[in-house]
Write a structure and sequence with these properties.
207 residues; alpha/beta; Rossmann fold; 54% helix
């Protein structure tokens, strides 16, 4: 099998990150999530903390609500006042994601990676979701927080993920047409989700 990339978009509390880690471990490949921020920081010379804060700043910005052209891959030069803008920080993350797709087999979670790599033939795009009540139960078991607080957190985080995705891609985050596989982790369980992705890999990339 040649090099490939598995991108995972996920609803909060659905276990998408866990499934991504399980896949990477079973397949013996790299797993990338927040490490992308460090790689983008190293590549651009921009402080990693600015990448970590970019999502929060974007979420609070009025510009976040304004429709814009989808990401096209442009990088802003260091001598520009907009070098550390949210859009340029996203573009540097996208640059790293593309380089990883060209260099190695890996799992990438979040960061609109499915859209960034939409023109790559070696990408398997996965969306992991679960019913709200099951996400609440999962997070309650993990944190012990009240269900009402957890529900508000899920709604807030998923809303932000959908708006972030829409802002940079022009697409709807939960639209099945964006993905190769949409997996209900509540019905399937994590192990079966992993097996389904592995079977899909075998079928699609069988030589």
């Amino acid at each position: 099998m040649s090099k490939y990339v598995i991108t995972i978009a996920r609803g909060y509390g659905s276990g998408g990150r866990t499934i991504g880690k399980m896949l990477a471990e079973e397949l013996g490949i790299h797993y990338y999530d927040r490490e992308l921020l460090r790689l983008a920081s190293d590549d651009s010379g921009i402080n990693e903390k600015l990448f970590a804060k970019a999502d929060e700043k974007l979420q609070k910005s009025l510009l976040f609500k304004i429709a814009r052209k989808a990401y096209k891959g442009e990088l802003i030069p260091p001598d520009s006042d907009d070098f550390v803008s949210n859009d340029n920080l996203f573009s540097y993350q996208a640059k790293i994601i593309k380089e990883l797709a060209e260099q190695e087999t890996c799992v990438i979670v979040g960061r609109a990676a499915d859209y960034i790599l939409k023109d790559y033939d070696n990408v398997v795009k996965v969306f992991v979701h679960a019913p709200l009540e099951d996400c609440i139960k999962t997070l309650k078991d993990m944190t012990g927080n009240p269900e009402k607080d957890i529900e508000k957190q899920i709604e807030s985080i998923d809303k932000h993920r959908a708006e972030y995705y829409k802002y940079y891609t022009g697409r709807n985050w939960e639209d099945a047409k964006n993905y190769d596989l949409c997996l209900n982790s509540s019905q399937l369980g994590f192990d079966k989700c992993v097996e389904i992705v592995k079977s899909y890999l075998d079928i699609r990339f069988r030589q």
